[in-house]
Amino acid sequence: MQKLVDKVFRKYGVPITVQDTGGTHEVSGFVKNGASSARKYLLTEYTPLGEIPIGFYVMLLPRYEARIGKLLQYGGKWYIIRRFEWVTFRDQVLYDWCLCEERGRLDTWGN
Length: 111
Fold this sequence. Notes:
Blueprint: H1 2-12, E1 14-20, E2 23-33, E3 46-47, E4 50-51, E5 56-62, E6 71-74, E7 77-89, E8 92-102
């Protein structure tokens, strides 16, 4: 199962730069804006892992990449991970589900 998930990330994912204390590196992942078409009708949007607040983004990253407070760059903008969960199959972590906030949207988190 892990090989299949890794292949999907490599083949269909978009480039996301990950910044942490050890420097930066690039991974392939997926990004979804919390302001989807459902927002224009003021409907709350839920995922299997919880509600997506307005102005937040869901990012799927390769397993073990996510940590709260880690910075991500996609499309020329910076994001901070506010919450993450490991998505598992049986006892195996397949990928990281991250709830991210765009820099400067709701707070400045360090200018």
